[in-house]
Amino acid sequence: MTLENISRYDPDRVTARDGHAVVVGASMAGLFAGRVLADAFEQVTVLDRDPLPDERIARRGVPQANHVHALLEPGRVMLEDLFPGYGGEIRDAGGVVMNASKKLDLYQGGDYIAEAEEELPFYCASRPLFEQLTRRHVAERADIALRGACHVTDFVADDDGRTVTGVRVVDGDDGEETIAADLVVDATGRTSRTPEWLERHGYPTPETENVGVDLAYSTVAVDRPPENERGYLIVPSPPVTRGGTAVPVEGDRWIVTVFGRHGDHPPTDPEGFEEFASSLPAPAISEVLAHHEWDGDEIHRYPFPASKRRYYEDLDRFPDGLLVTGDAVASFNPIYGQGMSAAALDALHLHHALAAGRENLATRFFDRAADTLDVVWRITVGSDFEYAETEGKKPAGTDVFNRYLSWVVDAAHEDRYVAEQFTRVLRLESHPTALLAPGILGRVATAKVRAYV
Ligand SMILES: Cc1cc2nc3c(=O)[nH]c(=O)nc-3n(C[C@H](O)[C@H](O)[C@H](O)COP(=O)(O)OP(=O)(O)OC[C@H]3O[C@@H](n4cnc5c(N)ncnc54)[C@H](O)[C@@H]3O)c2cc1C
Questions:
Q1: 374 and 403 housed in the same domain
Q2: Which domain holds residue 238?
Q3: 107 part of a folded domain
Q4: Pair 113, 119: CB distance under 8 Å
Q5: Looking at the structure, do residues 24 and 59 belong to the same domain, yes or no?
Q6: Helix, strand or coil for residue 22?
Q7: Which PANTHER family does the record match to this protein (predicted)?
């Protein structure tokens, strides 16, 4: 299931409203979850161990915030549905609302992808701006309390351990405290400790799959002429392991990230960074760096060893009163830009699960969310397995699909319709099987034949 076949958010679908929900983690997944929970619970509390000022900051708990954060279509749509006017706020804050068909140059498979026929809206902002605007909307609601500097140390359960009834927190000011809840949502990210908690309380733990890519990011900010709202994305194809992107954001800057997989990590000194950028398969990023002032010389680095998925949907026993969302369930190779949108789709599934009541909420939520995560995981991991060095379990049919996809990409260099459908799949708008529709197959085959004559 992707955006095209999930019903849109509709607050009127959730009618009953009672109890208290606690969300642990006030990053994007926690904020999305907190907002949809407020339709079904009288009070929602969103906790984070970091302080949460109304500022545009890269918090300690979200070290990836200094790097490019592309917001794909499900994230954009959910932010607009939950917080109408969000795009205008991005623009007011100096971010860019782009038509990606015309303004995002995507290089893949040895050439640039053709301009799509239709407009493809794309909100461009730094990750701290996305988080600040979202946090502000959540904080404005009387039925949601945001509590920063509040470290959750444990879940609390009833005597027989069947139901989670709250969380144990350490708060800078007040010391230790228990916060009672009718539902606890774990949105603590990739290092979530729910599996350990389940094990300690005699529950089965979710099977965890890792797909190793040994990736690293290096990122700088570069001054941008305000009238230049173009973005660039260079996706490597084997045997090339390096790529990069420059996204226009607020403050008249581009955030420029270069990355390398399978140990081919970009340096963090300015000369090395520039040299790495100039070795990419297309010159766009290198030109941005060469022709514009750097906004300071700090180069941020982020190593990302592996995508990780925890299969909560397969558990035959799980406590009542507990859910897990966002990176805590699945954290994807970031070069595909899916994390915030997967979290948004989790929240949309949670919304629909709540609309059907509270009974068996966890099972229904995990089942629904898994249908989407299967698609996102397949896109990420499938693409990663184009490289022989990728470690982990390769989904069945990956090699065949990858070969076909390389033909789609070849066709998309020239054919605007194929380019659009391909981009919609990358944006998590359409299911990858859309690329097998007769209208696309025919065009891909024609392009293939043309390449041989
Ligand atoms: C380098 C990099 C680049 C990325 N680029 C993109 C991109 O382009 N597009 C995209 O959509 N996604 C991207 N992502 C993924 C994206 O950052 C995440 O998917 C997104 O933030 C949602 O994650 P989350 O909210 O589940 O967890 P996180 O963002 O990891 O947040 C977890 C939160 O929980 C809090 N927390 C943890 N433990 C506790 C505790 N015990 N008590 C209280 N609070 C706690 C932390 O402080 C933090 O705020 C990228 C990731 C990386 C690593």
A1: no
A2: 210-305
A3: no
A4: no
A5: yes
A6: strand
A7: THIAMINE THIAZOLE SYNTHASE
Q: Which residue, 305, 322, 356, sits at the end of a domain?
A: 305
What is the pLDDT at residue 40? 97
Q: What is the CATH number of the domain that holds 355?
A: 3.50.50.60
Distance CA(67)–CA(99), nearest Å, equals 22
At 210, list the tokens. 């890792």
pLDDT at 15: 86
Q: How far is the CA of 329 from the centre of ligand 1 (A)?
A: 12
The CATH number of the domain holding residue 286 is: 3.30.9.10
- ω into 239 cis (within 30 of 0): yes
Report the chain's terminal Cα–Cα distance, integer Å.
39
CA of 408 to the centre of ligand 1 (A): 32
Residue 82 lies in a domain: no
Q: How far is the CA of 148 from the centre of ligand 1 (A)?
A: 16
Helix, coil or strand: residue 439: helix
Separation between Cα atoms, residue 70 and residue 327, nearest integer Å: 16
Same domain, 203 and 216: no
Residues 6+ away with beta carbon under 8 Å from 6: 345, 348, 349, 352, 372
In a domain, 350, yes or no: yes
158 lies in the same domain as 272: no
| Structure confidence at residue 451 (pLDDT) | 80
Same domain for 149 and 272, yes or no, is no
Q: How far apart are the CA of 28 and the centre of ligand 1, in A?
A: 7
Q: How many domains does the chain have?
A: 3
- β-pairing verdict for 253-260 and 208-223: antiparallel
Residue-wise pLDDT for 170-179, tens only, equals 987 778 999 9
Q: Which ligand 1 atom sits nearest the alpha carbon of residue 326?
A: 26
- Show the low-confidence residues of the chain (pLDDT under 70): 453
Q: How many CB atoms lie within 10 A of CB 99?
A: 15
CB 218 within 8 A of CB 267: yes
The alpha carbon of 218 and the centre of ligand 1 are apart by a number of angstroms equal to 18
Are 354 and 434 within one domain? no
338 in the same domain as 241: no
β-strand partners of 170: 151, 176
Are both 134 and 270 inside the same structural domain?
A: no
- Percent residues over pLDDT 70 in the chain: 100
Query: Which 3 state secondary structure label does DSSP give 418?
Result: helix
Q: Express each pLDDT in 227-260 by its tens digit.
A: 999 999 999 999 999 999 999 999 999 999 999 9
Atom number in ligand 1 closest to CA 328: 26
Domain-ending residue, one of 276, 305, 334? 305
pLDDT at position 354: 97
Ligand 1, residues at Cβ distance < 6 Å: 24-30, 47-50, 61-62, 64, 67-70, 151-152, 187-190, 217, 302, 304, 326-328, 334, 337-341, 343
Closest CA to 14 of 118, 143, 115: 143
